[in-house]
Design brief:
It is a single chain. The chain is α+β, with helices and mostly antiparallel strands. The chain contains 8 helices and 13 strands. The protein has a 7-stranded mixed beta sheet with strand order 7-8-9-10-11-13-12, with helices on both faces. β12 and β13 form a beta hairpin. α4 packs parallel to α8 and α5 packs across α6. It starts with a strand and ends in a 6-residue tail after the last strand.
Length: 283
């Protein structure tokens, strides 16, 4: 597994961290107590893991303390802490990890999108079928991800990992052309913090341009709303105009960019943060 979730405890606080060796980073998913008592333990863990980057999902008001410990802000996530915003604070432990040759050029994608009027999703007239995936679909899902991605930040090439996440608050929706799986997306729920991350989007190249991901997101959003989860975020490759466009036209708002965040395609990539608060009525 790429991720190792562990609990760090300090004198007057605790933190849930994701020691992500594949992506060379440590992420503080949530914490209790003052960050100044936790930061030394987090940095020690990062050193032990050989991490090049530390990401701290900070509660509002805690940013100045993190700045004192050389963290900088790369974005925000709306509603991350049960409706309250989180500041995405990062510290680089490697000079190379800090450097990006594409940051300014990637700004043009966001500029272009915000100059475009948002399109409303229309009902598909195709014969594609969209449905919730289950454990019986895990093998086909893993093959889809292998086909679409050269590398991926989580082990979705492994059907056992997909089954495990299905049992642990991740919902997958799949798109089919008759019996052929042609696209998928997932929502990773965090019931404790009351949010979900929209992720694991993949569509076969022959079917791109048909709003497949947009329809998968719509189905996932309806499912999440029914469970009372209305705060959503997603990370899109900054180099991919198409995925950023899907999120923009689906009503998500740009909230920042994580530099050299994770391994997708051929190496470490910058990831744009997009957020949305659902307006569906909860039944």
């Amino acid at each position: 597994m790429a991720k190792l979730i562990k609990e760090l405890r300090a004198e007057s606080g605790s933190a849930e961290i994701d020691a992500d060796r594949f992506n060379g980073r440590i992420r503080v998913i949530r914490y209790d107590g003052q960050p100044e008592v936790l930061i030394p333990a987090v940095l020690a863990e990062a050193k032990q893991e050989g991490a090049q980057k530390v990401i701290f999902f900070a509660k509002r008001g805690d940013e100045p303390e993190l700045v004192k410990h050389l963290f900088i802000q790369e974005g925000v996530i709306d509603g991350y802490y049960n409706g309250n915003e989180a500041a995405v604070m990062v510290r680089y432990l490697s000079e190379k990890r800090r450097q990006s040759d594409s940051y300014v050029s990637e700004d043009s994608t966001v500029d272009r999108l915000y100059e475009t009027q948002r399109r409303k999703l229309t009902e598909t007239e195709s014969k594609l079928i969209f449905r919730k995936a289950d454990e019986d679909d895990a093998d086909r899902l893993s093959h889809l991800y292998k086909h679409v991605f050269l590398t991926y930040p989580t082990p979705v090439f492994n059907p056992l990992y997909i089954k495990k996440t299905m049992r642990e608050n991740t919902i997958y929706y799949a798109a089919f052309d008759q019996e052929r799986l042609i696209g998928a997306a997932s929502a990773a729920l965090n019931p404790v913090l009351g949010h979900a991350e929209m992720t694991d989007c993949a569509v076969l190249s022959d079917y791109r341009g048909n709003s497949v991901t947009a329809h998968l997101f719509k189905a996932l959003e309806q499912e999440l709303s029914g469970r009372g989860i209305i705060h959503l975020f997603s990370l899109a490759r900054a180099a991919s105009y198409g995925m950023n466009a899907v999120l923009y036209h689906a009503g998500y708002g740009y909230r920042g960019r994580l530099v050299n965040n994770c391994r997708i395609s051929e190496g470490l990539e910058n990831m744009n943060i997009w957020c949305k608060t659902l307006r569906f009525s909860h039944s």
